[in-house]
Each structure stands twice: as C-alpha cells, then as structure tokens.
Write a structure and sequence with these properties.
globular, 7 strands, alpha/beta, single chain, seven-stranded mixed β-sheet
C-alpha cells in the first residue's frame, strides 16, 4: 500500500498520488475545481489519528485567520504518522526584496516569520522539527513535486511529527 499524501488548498492544481482538496469548489473566476475532496483546513479533518504520511500546501496557509490556522496545524499534527512531514510554501517577512504590500497581496491575511512559525508548530503544537527547505528539496521528495512559484516571494518549510 502506498503513502497517504494530502495536498490541501490545492485550488485546481491536481497531482497524482495525492488526495487533492480545497474548501472551494469554484475558482474566483467561476471555473469549477476538480477535487478529490472538499475540505476546510480550519475545521476538524475526517482522517484518523496518525493515518497520513505527508501533507503539502502551497500559498494557502497565509490566507487563513489565526483561529482557523491553529485548528489546521493541530489537525495536521494529529493525522500525521510519527515521522510524517508537513510541507508548505508561503510569503514570509524574511523576504526583503519585496515590500509588505506586495507580500500581503492576493487575499493574504497573514504575514509569517520563521521564528513565529517555529514557536507555534514546535513549542505549542508539538512538531519535533521545523526548518526552512529549498525549492524542490524535501525530506519526503514526493511532497516537493507540488512546490510552485520559485523566486516569487515564496519560502518553503517543513515540520516533522
């Protein structure tokens, strides 16, 4: 049996080998999404404890309000197997070559820093590690296939359970 991999907040970017999910079923322009699952990251997830090998999300988490984001982070931790990896890419305050208005574009609600995310994910939620990773460089190579927007205000991170 293969690995159970989740691609959350996928919009219409579908990848083989993943359960591709989003809470929206239609794009802002009215184009229907073709999803494997409709799922709101900020609500309890339908997966069993420690049943998922890896989770990936690109340019989604910064669009959530903190209450929903914390629910999502806790659910990621709950459903990941021991040693499972959560990978995400998003704009960060550490990106100095763009102004804050640019980074907060595209319906972004949050501006993260690496230190803030480490404190939340490791110190508060219980992930064992949190680190910045390069574009298409992952502890779980399958997850890095989903990386997008290289050089466009994106940093990539992984947290391991």
């Amino acid at each position: 049996m293969g690995k159970l991999l989740l691609h959350i907040g996928c919009a219409n970017r579908i990848y083989d080998g993943f359960i591709n999910s989003d809470k929206h079923t239609v794009s802002p322009r009215g184009k229907p999404y073709i999803l494997d699952q409709v799922m709101d990251i900020g609500q309890p997830w339908s997966y069993e404890d420690e049943s998922v090998d890896g989770i990936v999300s690109m340019h989604t988490l910064q669009q959530l309000y903190w209450r929903d984001l914390i629910v999502g982070f806790k659910e990621m931790h709950r459903v990941l197997k021991k040693g499972g990896v959560m990978r995400f890419g998003c704009p960060m305050v550490e990106i100095e070559d763009k102004d804050l208005d640019y980074i907060l574009g595209w319906a972004n609600t949050n501006l993260f820093s690496e230190d803030l995310l480490r404190r939340v994910l490791v110190d508060r939620i219980g992930f064992s590690t949190f680190s910045q990773r390069g574009y298409r460089k992952s502890r779980m190579p399958e997850l890095a296939r989903v990386d997008n927007r290289p050089g466009r205000c994106t940093l990539y991170f992984e947290a391991t359970k």
